Amino acid sequence: MNTHLREAAKEFMVRYGGDTFPSLFRSAKGSIVIDDTGREILDFTSGQMCATIGHNHPAIVQAVHEAGEKAYHLFSGMIPEVVAQLAETMAKDWMPKGLSKSIFINTGSESNEVAMRMAKMFTDGYEILAVGGSWHGVTGGASAASFASDRKGYGVHVPGVFVMPEPNLYRPYIKGLDGEASALACLEMGLKMYDMASTGRRAAIIVEPIISAGGVLVPPKSYMKALREAADERNMLLIFDEAQTAFGRIGHRHAADFFGVTPDIMSVSKTMGGGLPLAAVATTPAIEESIHSKGFTFYTSHVSDPLPATVGLAVLRTIQEEHLIERAQTMGGYLRRRLEELQSRYEAIGDVRGEGMLLGVELVKSRDSREPFHALGALTTQRCYELGLSMNIRRRPERGSVWRIAPPLTTTQSEIDRGVDILDEALRLSLDEISRTKLVAA
Ligand SMILES: Cc1ncc(COP(=O)(O)O)c(C=O)c1O
User: Fold this and answer.
1) How many domains does one find in the chain?
2) Are residues 219 and 330 in the same domain?
3) Which residue of 80, 247, 264, 300 has the lowest C-beta tally within 10 Å?
């Protein structure tokens, strides 16, 4: 362990939010990350939900090398051959039919800026309707449409953004209905409120098809179809933010396939670069033609860069060659069954949900009250880490305490077993500790 570097991190780095671990990190391979003491930790978050084909997959290492032999970066007006190849691959093999025009940038935030700018220019409107619990990024437009994190402290958000209550089947805002009916009622109410407030200059509805940071909420399929209709009725474009759901994570090519709904614009990012900064936005030729004629610009230093595009092609090829979409279904199903088995033994696990290898586990004080058990979430996450498992907990007072479990799609069954065994042990230790503390307090 290099204590000097740990001190340097404390002394010289800006703290950028979220919890950081006490150790520094040295390397990562497959589903394992290694810290500065040489300790191996099982990574059940695929880094920041990006490393779907596993950390430092040989195909990615090879792609970085290949780009090094050719070009990492070019003048933005020079379209690299590899970017043309990626655009064709996206259109022919990956995007929903019709979304055949793509632009390649670097981060999820940026991709949603592109998507919303496209929608504004196409419709000549500016209103964006978003969903509660969403996370579309940290840049101006994207953060204005995000409601899963703090909005305080940064001044005025981009005006013209409206929010609807999210469809939460476990904690329905509208009580007394079944989950699906409650989700649809939320949408109806949200749309009524929006229509009341709208100036008529409507641009787009933006949604994460599975609301991840908001607690891994999977809306019913009827919700997504109703959202499509709502957009059409209002001459708004429908944007799917598939940062986390595209390219196999949920056991489908993307959520548009899963829901059977095609958006007008799709943004993709995290899962496309396999850990390198690559994002894309795909839309129809008609939308592209229209905005181009109006002067659409998204000219950045790294738009169409060859390095991330080479990596993106390698990631997409690997997903196909290693049958990772099918694997997300089988391994995701296995992981889910193991988590449900834990749920049968722990009253505190109120809900297990999600699709493929994007799962949520919600912790409650009692299954009847569904009161969030934040203390248990925090303590168990810490114990998991001490025992060698990295987990991500989303804790918002208004939304419960939910683990987001998204291991690389390449994770083996024995790694899943090891992870769930650690979780089991960590839950047991944490519940013991909490009840002992209560006894002492009493
Ligand atoms: C659904 C979704 N959209 C957009 C983003 C923003 O992506 P980035 O952090 O790459 O800017 C995130 C990041 O967590 C996300 O989860």
Assistant:
1) 2
2) no
3) 300
- Let me know whether 150 and 258 are in one domain: yes
Residue where one domain finishes, among candidates 321, 348, 380: 321
Q: Report the CATH number that the domain containing residue 168 is assigned in CATH.
A: 3.40.640.10
DSSP character string of 137-164: -SSHHHHHT--SS--TTS-PPPSSEEEE
Each residue of 144-177: pLDDT tens digit?
Answer: 999 998 889 999 999 999 999 999 999 999 999 9
Buried b (16+ CB within 10 A) or exposed e, 213-245: bbbbbbbbeebbebbbebbeebebbbbbbbbbb
289 near 281, Cβ under 8 Å?
A: no
Distance from the CA of 132 to the center of ligand 1, in angstroms? 15
For ligand 1, say whether the CB of 392 is within 6 Å of any of its atoms: no
Six token digits for residue 109: 């935030």
Which of 43, 113, 166, 208 is the catalytic position?
208
For residue 106, which atom of ligand 1 is closest to its CA?
10
Which residue's CA is the closest to the ligand 1 atom numbered 4?
Answer: 136
Q: Which of 35, 120, 127, 135 is catalytic?
A: 135
Q: How many residues does the chain have?
A: 442
**367 Cα: distance to centroid of ligand 1 (angstroms):** 31
Do 415 and 301 share a structural domain? no
Res 18: pLDDT: 82
Do 131 and 166 touch, CB atoms closer than 8 A? yes
Residue 430: both structure tokens together:
């944490």
Q: Both 267 and 329 in a single domain?
A: no
Structure tokens at 415: 């790694």
pLDDT at 395: 73
| Ligand 1 pocket member 31 (CB < 6 A) | no
What are the contacts of 338-344 at 24+ separation with CB within 8 A? 338/416, 338/417, 338/420, 339/405, 339/420, 342/420, 342/423, 342/424, 342/427
Predicted TM-score of the model (pTM): 0.97
Q: What is the CA radius of gyration of the chain?
A: 22
| Residue 438 pLDDT grade (very low, low, confident, very high; cuts 50, 70, 90) | confident
Domain identity same for 190 and 294: yes
* Structure tokens given for 431: 């519940």
Instruction: Of 141, 151, 75, give the one whose Cα is nearest residue 111.
Output: 141
Range of the domain at 16: 3-57+323-441
